[in-house]
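Cross-check.
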Amino acid sequence: MKRTLALFSLFPLLLAGCGTKAASTDGTKVEQAVPVTVAPVMMRTVPRTITANGTLLAYEDVMLAPKVDGRVAAVHADVGDVAIPGSLILELDPTEHDLAVNEANRALDAELARIGLAEIPPGNFDVEIVPLVQRAEAARINAIRGYERLKGTGSVSKTELDAAETEVKVSEANKRDAVTIARATLASAKWRKAVLEQSQQRREECDVRVPIPAGWGAWAAVVGPYATPGRFVVAQKMVSVGERVQSMPLTNAFRLVIPSYLKLQVTVPERYIGEMQLGQVATVRVDAFPNSPFPAKVYRVSPTIDPVSRAFPVVLAVPNLNGKLKPGGFARASIRVGIQTIATVPPPAVVTFAGTSKVFVFADGKAKAVPVSLGVSEKDWVEVIGEFPEGSQVITSGFSQVVDGTLVRVR
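Predicted model, tokenized:
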């Protein structure tokens, strides 16, 4: 029974292979031509592209963290908010740092008071004008004058003269000590000033501001800070008011991205290394907008090839001023590397069975099967790669009765 059914299932194919038979006047059967429609093989010039997949990355992706320890006093942005470069985004409680500034200021004043100065003098400072040194210098001059006076009288004892001479030596030693103390105190005051400036810097860093990317100032001068494509958007907020943050280990507060321009990083097979150039035009497609390709350009080409994958990274710049594309998303890129002429036929002309494709060429009143490989396609045509005589016509209908060598006629 099964064998009978199998034979019946092959019957239509046998009929198609044999074509239509008609009786002649002498009683023999003559094969009739199968009516078909045909279309010419069209040669088209189309862009030659390389396709690759990758992940969309933000033009800038920054993890923002405070540089100092402290407790969060205020948070000025949340997820999705625009963060203008240079604007205040986070405030830490400055109490501890205010105290440190005051302490460093008092320590500096104390050091300067030791040598009779109100502030650190600029440049190369002569310590001879420091009051401490001036007093020692005055004592030294007075001792020398006393010694010279006693020595000039000639009526003093040797003991008194020796005492006066010793007084001169002591005053000179005191002068040297005063100079040394003045220089040491001045150096200590400079160190205290550095500590003060460091404390003031830490106090300023209690106000965390949005970083300023390269080129943002030029954009802002032309279109304003709120219209420039270089503005950040808050992707993550990781701190809240009252939370304690640290500089070591680092406490990240925000993740900021610039989504107005994206980078698509793809890997391209090694064989295309000679065809890839900066500035080449590309299109990017994502699943969320399947019918809306996004323009792009080749932005970076790696000078090296991965020896494992035998591919090299390429980065595309993708404008995203309307914000439709999202960083982190999957995308497919088609990079235009040149143009080529291809053979195309209407889609109905292609017959595919068991993973192989072919077309039937109309030649000398017969159908000739030509194996083909399929390439790019559009709505009204598909690229076919095979052996086609110049000016070939392919059959577009009537396949149910056509096999290789079947007589056919154009209806």
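The first strand starts at residue 20 and ends at 23. The first helix runs from residue 2 to 18. Passed to J.P. for a second look.
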